[in-house]
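Hi everyone,

Forwarding the result from last night's run.
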Amino acid sequence: MLLRTFRLNGLNKIYQENVRKMLRDPNRKPLLLQMRELIWLAKTQKYWPHNYFRYKAYTKGYDVRELQYYLPGRLMNFIREDCVNDQSCKDFCNDKVQFKRILMENALPTAEPIGYFSRGQGYFRLDDSPIDEAEFLNNLDGYYVIKPSRDTSCGRGILFFSTDQQSAIVNFGDNHTILLNELRGYLSQHHNKCLLIERQLKQHPQMAVIYSHAVNTIRIDTLRCLDGNIINLNAYIRLGRGDRKVDNITAAEGVGGISVPIDHISGRLKGIGKDRYLNEFIQHPDTGVAFEGIEIPFWNELKELVCQAHRVFPKVNSIGWDVGITPQGPVLIEGNHDYDMYGIQVMHGGYLKNKVFVEQMLGYIRQSPFRNKYERYFLIKN
């Protein structure tokens, strides 16, 4: 397993993002102690110890023993692939056009789809029927978001624009405008050949008070238990900052957002917010709004919605959902079959302390051909 995770480009990324930061941290532990802790963690988890840097266990006062409860993200992806999720169905989550189509067919609330653009072919409805270009352009009047059908991690490739039929202008912001009839040529230059186009969501006023330039989304993960029951595990809110229009903590273009944990029962923000570098915040740096105690509107409806949506994907047993809150209620934005464990564990601690999660994962592993490969990662002696 150590060899499976060892990649030179991955090692270089770890160095650039984590090791260099550690070497510059005045609060770091002595290097000799760090070496001993790294060796202990690798032997204990039997896995490449990159979590040591991701969670800043090199800082003074951090008890490295806590890290044995933090699942490495790549390991969890391997377990999902081999034991938990049917990989023949992953495109239902990976492909945003397919995902949106499934939501609409099952009357699940989501942002209004306008259609999709396919490079070299033109505009299409979700049912793959073509839309005449003049008809498509004539119906554009308002605010929209364009998403690559695949790979939008860290907000990569997402575009926002507004249109005005009277002036026939498409405005992408920052004084970047094109004529309406130039839109097809502009989209053809995008790195992704298939683009989903949908109307921008208007978020709930209580969410906009915290930060208004982006739709602040809730990440909540659900798990189908072995008995078929679907449960919510944990949740946190992702907040944009710096006038950015996306809220991802690991933003593609520099400063990322801030994540704040949500109490699963009350639906209120709790504890301290953190960015991707684990800098801590008790209030939003742009708006000054304090996080503690803020209530997420429609919280119970949100929890029920993601469980209802999960039932539509019977062969995908582990899903991380992104949910927006509008004045009318929660709406589904994305479902991720391979969601990263980093954000959720930064917010709520190591998942190997969650007894229900461990019990269900062991059940999936033990009924798969990979029991000997993965079981040991969930058998931790307290």
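The chain has three domains: 2-69, 87-97+204-353, 112-199.

Cheers,
N.
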